[in-house]
Amino acid sequence: MSVFLAEPKRAEPKRPVNGSLIYEPKGRAREYAALACNIYRGCDHGCIYCYAPDATRRTRQDFAASSIRLGFLGKLEKEAAKYAAVGTTERILLCFTCDPYQYLDLHEQHTRRTIEILHGHGLAIQVLTKGGGQALRDLDLFTPRDAFGTTLTLLDNAESTKWEPRAALPGDRIRTIQRFHQAGIPTWVSLEPVLDPAIALEIIRRTHPFVDVFKVGKLNYHPLAQEIDWSNFADCSVRLLKSLGYHQNADPDSLQPGQFYVKRDLARYLPISHV
Asked: Under CATH, which number does the domain 22-274 receive?
């Protein structure tokens, strides 16, 4: 099985200053990646639970009318060179405040050019998307140093469409991550937000044969979160993953194939036996 990290964990390298495109995430986002890059401004998937409009101080309508970032590719070329020059080994996550395979990318294809630029400077990437099969267009660019991840929340098409109106349907996302796994690309699933704990557990059961790493979280910023027994879900998800042969790792920067990470928001609900 391919090693999930591009390199073993090491001392934090010196960072280039004033990076406006490639940056170090803060807060909850830091649990997903040490470095990230947002290719587009906004996202047209229209997910009801999305935190990004508030985080970027935009209305949901404005955020859903996504657009390219002016001068993005030229600026990225320069920043990638700086990160390469200081020996960056961490994967760069695409993306946090947008989806690299939203509908806009069908026309602009900035995601493909982004991967080509980062690879051209020897930098590895990891994708997080709800775009499903649209990502297969770029499968030829991925290498075992990279990783492909998808967010999985539901299994029913009607429910998925209600919560994630323009994202790929669950079956499409699952088939896509399976294709990347078959191609030898390290894979991971983000189980966040959790909208229905029973469905989240079923997603683990259905996908574990072709998912190297699971990252498990909860639902935030939505009233439904108050109705869910997070202690029970935390316990059940850890027990299930361990029963399937996965090992818990509390350090998100050193995850290996066959491991899972429980995000801090959910980990505080875990019994002592799982901490």
From this structure: 3.20.20.70
